[in-house]
């Protein structure tokens, strides 16, 4: 199911990019967000919060150092990974059973924040939300109709 969800998200991301020239938070992000919305709404909310922190941290870093190109990408994704890992560690200490097996999604906040830095914020958020919603609808419909494998 995860591979198909990511593939559906990739297809919608590519269509979005080709028609609007906007990246919806990275190519894998909508598929991953759609799967996360199906599996755990709290984790999706956490990704939104960490994305906001990553974006704010990136804006602060840009005031302190020169970041562009590959250095900007690496810095934003690394900051997102560090923040996501920190939140996961803190939450796993407070709620050990809630996030016991979370290993994916550490780069998604960084990918979204990177696109927010590079592109206009409003259209990027709209593209990310709409493409993720389309992927969610297709994956959820596939699960409900029994045509999407669950194992």
From TrEMBL:
<feature type="transmembrane region" description="Helical">
    <location>
        <begin position="124"/>
        <end position="148"/>
    </location>
</feature>
<dbReference type="InterPro" id="IPR008338">
    <property type="entry name" value="Capsule_biosynth_CapC"/>
</dbReference>
<dbReference type="GO" id="GO:0016020">
    <property type="term" value="C:membrane"/>
</dbReference>
<keyword id="KW-0812">Transmembrane</keyword>
<keyword id="KW-0614">Plasmid</keyword>
<feature type="transmembrane region" description="Helical">
    <location>
        <begin position="72"/>
        <end position="91"/>
    </location>
</feature>
<dbReference type="Pfam" id="PF14102">
    <property type="entry name" value="Caps_synth_CapC"/>
</dbReference>
<protein>
    <recommendedName>
        <fullName>Capsule biosynthesis protein capC</fullName>
    </recommendedName>
</protein>
<feature type="transmembrane region" description="Helical">
    <location>
        <begin position="42"/>
        <end position="60"/>
    </location>
</feature>
<keyword id="KW-0472">Membrane</keyword>
<keyword id="KW-1133">Transmembrane helix</keyword>
<dbReference type="GO" id="GO:0045227">
    <property type="term" value="P:capsule polysaccharide biosynthetic process"/>
</dbReference>
